[in-house]
């Protein structure tokens, strides 16, 4: 490793990278290579970083070589699945990116109702494969989000009320830890490491493949019920009372956004039901009759159609983004007023405020059973600024910061790990791992004592202090 006069790691040596490139089965992209520029970019166009190299791994052995290389060279390391980290953890300046986007294998066992999934698979790809045999597992609501990254933080989605979070359906995983070892972990094999992967948010290693439990899912109810933004406070008060009435099969999210067709600000209830359609019609009726709405677009649809309902503009790579988020168990009037004012003052038609309601099976798992501790009925609230022009960033980030300053005091001091921002306070990051933080810190010290995997919602390693002898 090149060490500079300041004692910090210097730029990685060319000959070291050339040797790594020769060792890998997949390509190693460096700044002079064709394809480097698109490969360094991620979903958030506001993240403009230039890693020294991007290792496009073809198999677990490539991942092992790249991890050992980053460790030995003292390089900053990013791990990228689908590239959807809002803070842009999937890229960095001057370090190495382990890019899993070529690990696309999906093997569905329809009889066993399981799927083996490569670490670079996107939800769209997994849903298409499992839906061919009428199965699905809880997954992300925007179709080009990475399966692995979303799962490792917990995994909220349309099926969570009935089937739990993505982590609750994870049966086993391969993981390459910071020492370069490849482990296959599940409830019997290295259960501590398996526990930590289910909510530890990328802190414990690189996951080249995962195995999921699947469930029968065919036609579902889905769609939006749209009201004018002027009625947002009224709709949100209805929504906070409606959510706790939902059975496990139903989901209700809510978004304050600009109608892409009409170009006017609206509030939309995003409804779903995964079960007998007539029962779904009955359960969702109060939310469709309230108002009356401007439009009721709820209808039976294939599951994959519901899984891409929020893609526009959220699936578009390269737009500029800034995102803040928190959990809350209550939608108090102050929060309703704050988000309504935020939406009314929005500086971009692509920006939005979104509420995900977490309930049902996702909340019936004990907090200590998986690393994902936030097992309570609650809303994940996201204020998302999105815009097209880099030169306008200040205006939109100012909108987000002032909106967030008004909303945040009305919410808990924790967030969904996968939605934490880099400018969230360290105490909020710690609070987001909840009662599992200490166990996670001890496991981090065991599996990644030097914090090689630190570009993530980070868990600081905690080395147990030796007990003093009595004398
Ligand atoms: C538009 C959008 C919609 C979203 N919707 C949802 C949603 O419905 N439900 C939900 O729960 N979350 C949602 N999220 C949050 C999402 O779960 C996180 O952003 C997640 O980190 C994305 O994973 P990725 O692989 O696409 O991201 P990347 O940027 O590729 O990775 C982010 C981090 O995940 C870890 N990681 C990714 N892949 C691997 C791997 N194979 N092995 C080890 N670590 C890995 C790494 O720490 C990495 O830094 C959404 C995000 C966006 C931007």
UniProtKB/TrEMBL annotation:
GO molecular-function term, one example from the UniProt record? oxidoreductase activity
Q: Which cofactor does it need?
A: FAD
Which keywords does the record carry? FAD, Flavoprotein, Oxidoreductase
- Residues spanning the signal sequence: none
Which residue ranges does the record assign to the FAD-binding PCMH-type domain?
Answer: 47-217
**SUPFAM superfamilies, alphabetized:** FAD-binding/transporter-associated domain-like
Q: Which family does it belong to?
A: Belongs to the oxygen-dependent FAD-linked oxidoreductase family.
Q: What is this protein called?
A: FAD/FMN-containing dehydrogenase
* Source organism of the structure: Geodermatophilus dictyosporus
Source taxonomy: Bacteria, Bacillati, Actinomycetota, Actinomycetes, Geodermatophilales
């Amino acid at each position: 490793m090149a060490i500079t006069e300041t004692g910090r790691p210097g730029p990685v040596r060319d000959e070291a990278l050339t040797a790594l490139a020769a060792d890998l089965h997949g390509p190693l992209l460096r700044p002079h290579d064709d394809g480097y520029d698109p490969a360094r970019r991620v979903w958030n166009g506001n993240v403009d970083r230039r890693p020294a190299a991007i290792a496009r791994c073809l198999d677990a052995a490539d991942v092992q070589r790249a991890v050992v290389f980053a460790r030995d060279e003292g390089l900053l390391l990013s791990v990228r699945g689908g590239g959807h980290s809002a803070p842009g953890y999937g890229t960095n300046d001057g370090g190495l990116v382990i890019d899993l986007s070529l690990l696309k294998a999906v093997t569905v066992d329809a009889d066993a109702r399981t799927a083996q999934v490569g670490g670079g698979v996107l939800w769209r790809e997994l849903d298409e494969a499992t839906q061919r045999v009428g199965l699905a597992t809880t997954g992300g609501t925007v179709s080009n989000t990475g399966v692995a990254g979303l799962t490792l933080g917990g995994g909220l989605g349309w099926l969570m009320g009935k089937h739990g979070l993505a982590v609750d359906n994870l049966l086993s995983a391969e993981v390459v830890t910071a020492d370069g070892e490849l482990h296959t972990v599940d409830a019997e094999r290295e259960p501590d490491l398996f526990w930590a992967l289910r909510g530890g948010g990328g802190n414990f290693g690189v996951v080249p493949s995962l195995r999921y439990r699947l469930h029968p899912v065919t036609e579902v109810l889905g769609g939006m019920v749209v009201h004018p933004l002027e009625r947002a406070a009224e709709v949100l008060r209805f929504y906070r009372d409606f959510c706790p009435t939902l059975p496990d099969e139903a989901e209700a999210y809510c978004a304050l956004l600009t109608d892409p067709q009409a170009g006017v600000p609206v509030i939309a209830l995003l409804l779903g039901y995964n079960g007998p359609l007539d029962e779904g019609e009955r359960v969702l009726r109060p939310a469709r009759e309230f108002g009356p709405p401007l439009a009721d677009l709820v209808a039976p649809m294939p599951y994959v159609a519901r899984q891409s309902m929020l893609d526009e503009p959220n699936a578009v790579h390269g737009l500029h983004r800034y995102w803040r988020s928190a959990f809350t168990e209550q939608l108090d009037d102050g929060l309703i007023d704050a988000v309504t004012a935020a939406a009314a003052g929005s500086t971009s038609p692509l920006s939005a405020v979104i509420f995900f309601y977490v309930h049902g099976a996702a909340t019936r798992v004990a907090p200590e059973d998986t690393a994902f501790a936030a097992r309570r009925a609650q809303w994940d609230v996201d204020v998302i600024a999105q815009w097209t022009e880099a030169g306008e960033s200040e205006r939109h980030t100012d909108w987000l910061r002032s909106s967030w300053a008004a909303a945040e005091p009305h919410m808990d001091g924790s967030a969904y790990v996968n939605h934490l921002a880099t400018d969230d306070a360290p105490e909020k990051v710690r609070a987001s791992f909840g009662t599992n933080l200490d166990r996670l810190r001890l496991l981090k010290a065991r599996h990644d004592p030097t914090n090689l995997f630190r570009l993530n919602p980070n868990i600081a390693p905690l080395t147990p202090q030796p007990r003093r002898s009595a004398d």
